[in-house]
Design brief:
mainly beta; six-stranded mixed beta sheet; four-stranded antiparallel beta sheet; 10 strands; about 0% helix; globular
């Protein structure tokens, strides 16, 4: 079964940028929709963005529209989240998962896999 690993988190100043990567091992991401979620301390885990395998279905939470961009590179077996104009409110642990609302029935595999998360801290 595919396993997911997030990378790219770190400390950044407000207004800065980071690019997160969700990489796969044990399989390819070609047939998976991938979502990015985040969880701040004491809060629920919420979906930030997702993309289906066909890229026909793409979603952004209102709070990140115009600032974050999701993309996938099947040749590199990875999905990326480009985060620009970061705010302190974006501080959270970011997770990628195959379980997300962009999955297209009959096209994207229906399995639930989560990465371990990568911490993003936006602070001056």
């Amino acid at each position: 079964q595919v396993q997911l690993v997030e990378s790219g988190g770190g400390l950044v100043q407000p207004g800065g940028s980071l690019r997160l990567a969700c990489s796969a091992s044990g399989g390819t991401l070609d047939h998976y929709a991938i979502g990015w979620f985040r969880q701040a301390p004491g809060k629920e885990r919420d979906v930030v963005s997702c993309i289906s395998s066909s890229e026909r279905s793409i979603y952004y939470a209102d709070s990140v529209k115009g600032r974050f961009t999701i993309s996938r590179d099947n040749n590199k077996n990875a999905v990326y989240l480009q985060m620009n104009m970061l705010r302190p409110g974006d501080t959270a642990t970011y997770y990628c998962s195959t379980n997300n609302p962009c999955a297209e029935a009959g096209l994207d595999r229906d399995v639930e896999v989560w990465g371990q998360g990568t911490l993003v801290t936006v602070s001056s």
